[in-house]
Write a structure and sequence with these properties.
This protein is an all-alpha fold. The protein is built from 20 helices and 4 strands. A hairpin with a 3-residue loop joins strand 3 (495-496) and strand 4. The chain starts with 24 loop residues before the first helix and ends with a helix.
Length: 520
């Protein structure tokens, strides 16, 4: 039994900055959304890569044709899969889609799709030729060589990229996995399909999955012997894949997300915007908010909190939970973060190669709320800022606006952070689109506009917002007011996994919170 840290509370009574009541339509939307955070394992977009792997390795009993048709529809005009605005995240999804369409060539007419995909890979290969950025897709150092080997086995004319740095990272990761001998619910299990060979029953976690990954679970099932002993395990894993297919919004058998369940992640990150926007003590939200705070408090253990109760605890969710619960009046221990601390950086999990600026900034922000300061982490954040004023490359999100929001939250109250956050403010202002929104893919997106607004709001609270910044804030809120109701399935994927994804409820919480803050 894990020791619980919450939900014992301390008194608190900060007044809200804006007089909001249940008559506010935005507040009403928050009241409706709050109870859904974490429900049904979380709400997340469909994954081309994982869908392709499920269709290949463990096709749904009802047939693969609907899933294959969906897969074909995701192909872009240039022949690849994934957003053309984020080319680094397309290669793995494109290879997986080609492999799947090739496997079912006798069921679906996909010759043109495969040819276009192969041509796209030849055109795009230089993107993977040299560097290994911090924003590399999760597990790419293992998954990319695995997929290329599969293509070679099938004699597909697919370019084998000679990225020695990436392959070197893959060898290091394999050595690390062999050394630690990972167990159920551990991070290496999330990419088991790329390195695993023996489908050990003990690898199945409490969610019925292998590493909360539909792809890993499907491949594990394909390698699991069929007999009376393994049948209960098979039923658990198949039920997991069926449940995962129901959370994407498509309700197509075999069309699955890249990671699931993620109920604790959705809860912690969904409540975090309320903290940033000073809305945790808004009276109109208390009836719906308090049960969710209690749930977060009970889920936080002495080792932290993970994306679900069946996955390892991580530094990102733990930092968010600590900051939220402390501000909301719960008695929690910030030393829990020590187990995720490196040399000036905070990690989600042990054995990570790339560092995360947003996670480190979140940890600095959380510690500051407790009256603590990590000098080395503050220094790292200052040194990581780009010349243009933004924090760019990150392990978990492709938008510099997301990362810069976290940089501003961590550094705005710091005297030595003044120059850094003022440079960030200038860049946020100058990068605002004509329509008032913000976005890194060429078009404004509601979630990135929310990040920009909350960064400007944070500067306002520290009396650092300029007159031009105030004007940018008002224009941004006007845009967001019109864009907040964008349909979920039309959203731009910006969060990093094995491919980019959308955590729908988390993004909506950021947007609604950004509409409620005021600088007047």
């Amino acid at each position: 039994m894990q020791t619980q840290i919450g939900p014992e509370k301390r008194p608190y009574g900060r007044s809200t900055l804006i007089p909001l009541t249940t008559e506010s339509p935005i507040v009403a939307k928050l009241q409706g959304l709050l109870p859904l955070l974490g429900a049904s394992g979380g709400r997340i977009s469909a994954s081309v890569y994982d869908t392709a792997q499920v269709l290949r390795a463990c096709p749904p009993a009802s047939g693969v044709t609907p899933g294959l048709e969906w897969l074909k529809r995701q192909q872009q005009a240039d022949g690849g899969w994934g957003s053309p605005a984020a080319p680094l995240y397309r290669r793995i999804s494109t290879i997986a889609a080609i492999l799947t369409l090739h496997q079912y060539a006798d069921i679906i007419d996909a010759a043109e799709s495969i040819a276009a995909g192969l041509e796209h890979l030849h055109f795009q290969r230089e993107l993977w030729a040299n560097t290994v950025p911090d924003s590399l897709p999760v597990g790419a150092e293992l998954i990319y060589p695995y997929l290329i080997d599969e293509a070679a086995r099938l004699k597909l004319a697919m370019p084998r990229q000679g990225n020695t740095a990436l392959l070197s990272q893959g060898r290091k990761k394999l050595a690390y996995i062999q050394h630690i001998r990972p167990d159920a619910g551990s991070p290496p299990m999330h990419s088991w399909e790329a390195w695993g060979s023996s489908p050990e029953p003990a690898y199945l976690d409490g969610a019925g999955s292998i590493g909360h990954s539909p792809a890993a679970t499907a491949v594990w099932l394909a390698r699991l012997p069929r007999n009376e002993t393994t049948e209960p395990l098979r039923q658990q894993a198949e039920a997991y894949l069926n449940r995962a297919a129901r959370v994407t919004g498509f309700n197509i058998p075999g069309v699955v997300p890249g990671i699931w369940p993620m109920d604790r992640f959705e809860l912690a990150f969904g409540l975090y915007p309320l903290l940033v926007a000073d809305l945790l003590d808004l009276p109109a939200l208390q009836d719906t908010l308090e049960p969710q705070l209690d749930a977060l408090g009970f889920a936080l253990t002495e080792k932290g909190i993970g994306l679900s109760d069946y996955f390892y605890q991580d530094g990102d969710d733990t930092a968010a939970a600590l900051a939220i619960l402390h501000t909301a009046g719960f008695l929690v221990d910030p030393s829990i973060l020590d187990r995720f601390r490196g040399d000036g950086v905070y990690y989600a999990f042990g054995g990570e190669i790339q560092k995360s600026i947003s996670l480190t900034a979140r940890a600095v922000h959380a510690l500051r709320l407790f009256g603590q300061r990590d000098e080395a982490a503050v220094r790292l954040l200052l040194e990581s800022q780009g010349e243009n004023g933004r924090w760019q490359d990150d392990k978990w999100h492709i938008s510099w606006l997301y990362n810069t929001l976290h940089g501003v939250l961590a550094l705005a109250p710091e005297s030595e952070g003044y120059t850094a956050v003022m440079r960030a403010q200038e860049d946020i202002i100058h990068s605002q689109h004509v329509n008032g929104g913000w976005g890194v893919t060429g078009e404004a997106t509601p979630s990135e506009t929310a990040y920009g607004l909350l960064a400007l709001y944070t500067l306002h609270k520290e009396n650092l917002l300029t007159d031009v910044g105030r004007w940018a804030f008002k224009r941004g809120q006007a845009y967001l007011q019109t864009a907040v109701n964008q349909p979920d399935l039309d959203r731009t994927a910006l969060w990093i996994e094995k491919e980019l994804y959308v955590p729908h409820r988390i993004e909506k919480m950021f947007e609604l919170s950004a509409l409620l803050v005021s600088i007047d």
